[in-house]
Amino acid sequence: MFGVYGAPDVAPLIYRGLFSLQHRGQEGAGIVVSDGQFIQSVKGQGLVSDVYTEQAASLLSGRSLGIGHVRYSTTGSTRIQNVQPLVVECVDGIWAVAHNGNLVNAGELRRMYQEAGAIFQTSTDSEIMVHLLADPMYRSRPHRVARALQQLKGSFSFLVMTRDCVMAARDPLGFKPLSIGKLGTAWVFASETCALRQIGAEYVRDVDPGELVVADSAGLHSTFFSETVPPALSHCVFELVYFARPDSVVFGKNAHLVRVAYGMRLAEEQPVEADVVVAIPDSGNSAALGFARRSGIPLDYGFIRNHYVGRTFIMPDAGARERGTDLKLSTVPEVVSGKRVVVVDDSIVRGTTARRRISALREAGATEVHVRISCPPTAFPCHYGIDFPTREELVAGVKSVDDVRRVIGADSLGYLSEDGLLMPFERPSSFCTACFTGRYPVDPAGAGGKKALEARNGELLLDL
Ligand code: SF4
Question: 377 and 425: one domain?
Fold first, then answer.
């Protein structure tokens, strides 16, 4: 998500911000802008560059506030209705809503509104926010947003826009990042700090967990919407393991440096005799550097990445992911042939991709392949905004480490420990580790899977 309040022409800034956040979602993009009176929106499926065409740029130009979103589906399918920001007209004007995260009580709230006669247009969990905002129970604007946020459970960072203000909010446990920046006199909001830097904005601070920040003609003001103080925060540690861009500062830490530290710790915890360390690019680059530094084994480019293939992890279906994986990486036989190779990556999900890569290294002449993973085994699904498969489909969810090693065809396999995962942080208890430990900070009962809302809504939505 990316939003700007108070610049003369926000659309090009939002475009550049979203472009920097493309790694967070590749299925659709949208930009909504306002001049204080009229709201314009452009949305489409595909990449930001597919949506923000010359025609869109001219349609959106000269507006002083706006928000944008790139879509990665963790609920709802890949179709245009689900692309955000969602824009609706209520009794007191137009609202635009962009969401990052996953609402575990969206199904229950949706059913409640449907029984009262509400009509839903999308199959995303995010749409429930629109209905809460439109609910006549909550009249005045800041209260309306705060009261709406109080009804939600799960992980959420939101950008909400009206014709004359931009609001930013984070759930009380702080699952997902959301930062505030300043560009001259304009206020900027971004899911990651790399997007602030891209437009030359200065990082000011993060939106605090449970905080609602409003940027309007009176400046920047803040309120806390959470009625209860949570026992501990639950920042998503997977943002630092993999999801965030390495040049972003997330939850106060630079993602690249955290990954280098993971690689160094991994070399201590899971040592191996080998001739060369290679990364699975780009996700394993930083950890491989750390592993090489600590182990003294030289780092080299055993895989080359084709940059015209997007991020395969966030592709919406398994077929696309596998085709993308095959196209994305190729081995360099001159680097690995006749060598004992340590391959460093950030995670093993189903095991199919890892098996193909190991087999490619052997075909390229590697004599041994040792796999090192810079986090503990991913054994549980995420209900808060990362599209992992079910426990049964996660290879580490149903198999021991040695069985996973056999499945992927490695000579050895070693994971980072849970202690190692939390070692870079001053307050380890403020992180969610549920996909590794099964300790869910918010009860996920009712969250369902990615297709849960479609399934609940049967044939009508499947027909679209
Ligand atoms: S379960 Fe894993 S991916 Fe999901 S929020 Fe927690 S740490 Fe992040």
Answer: yes
